[in-house]
Structures are given as structure tokens and as C-alpha cells.
Structure prediction request, 104 residues.
Amino acid sequence: KSRLDPVRRTRILAAVSAFVPGADETGQGSADIQAMDQAAQDFRTGETALRALAVLGPGGPAGADPVALRHALADLDRVSLHDEARALAFEAITAALLGGEPHV
Prediction:
């Protein structure tokens, strides 16, 4: 019932769903997302973090594609970078609520 446009609502839902147990989407998305998912599954923390930054793109979490955002947050959380994942989720949600034009 929010007055947010669909892009902003989708980004918020993606950020929140990344931390919901059982909402795993591993194997879906681009080759880069799949490689990041695999790095997280193998608990390669550094590689997962670097791939997450690349997948989020130059706009960071505020401008990331919702699928990429959801995977990046879930994968960072999976490799025990909980605080970092939540900080990025906070940035994405805040940008969606308060930011200017959404990036797609």
C-alpha cells in the first residue's frame, strides 16, 4: 500500500527477502550471479565479497538490479559477513525510500 513506484518496492522486497530462511534462489540469474552463489556456497569469503561488489555495479546497492541485490546480500550473509550484508541492505532500502530517481 506504499506509494513507492514498482522499482523501489521491488528493491526493498529483494533486500528484505535476502535474509528470509528458505528463500534461496541459488542458480538463478546471470553467469556472474551464479559464480557469486557458487563462491558463497563453497565459503570463499573474499571471492564472494569481490563478486558481490561487481554484481551490484557502479551504483552500489542503491542502484542494483533487484535480483543481483537479493543474491549479493544473501551470499554475503551466507559467508558470515552479516553486518556488511545488513549495511548494504539498509543502504538499498534507504535509497528506495528517500532517494531520487531509481536506477534500473
